[in-house]
Please model this.
Amino acid sequence: MAGTGLNLWQCNDALAGVSAVKAFKPHNKSVGEARAFTRDALADADLPVGDIEDIVVCVSELATNAIQHGTPRDGSFQLDIRVDRFKVRVECHDPVRKRPRLREPSLAGEGGRGLFLVKALTSRWGVGFLPFGKFVWFEVDSRVTDLPERDRANGEG
Model:
């Protein structure tokens, strides 16, 4: 993304599948940018549309949590998306080591649904810790059965 000053790395090959990493500033507009980045990263994966939409919803929730609870104003959070033939794995890294809590959402409250949705829409999820922060991750078992068109054209697979 030209002019954003944010790093973007993407790899797409037959052995590694699809991988993409991008850092985001802790602004509300970054949630929409994270959704768009996720859709772009998954565009060449042969995933059902419903799976992609569930993944995008979960990314939106993790990005919102990173902005509200895990990233100082002058910091950034990072999305790491990996796809192979068996699963899609998304990690959202931020610099705060506080463990997020899965809460049962209340009918009256507006918040508290993020991790509840992640749990409901994914195959598994969790939290990992690093020396300088944490990452919240989820996986969706995929039914990727085909390589991206580019790899088929190169005679791979």
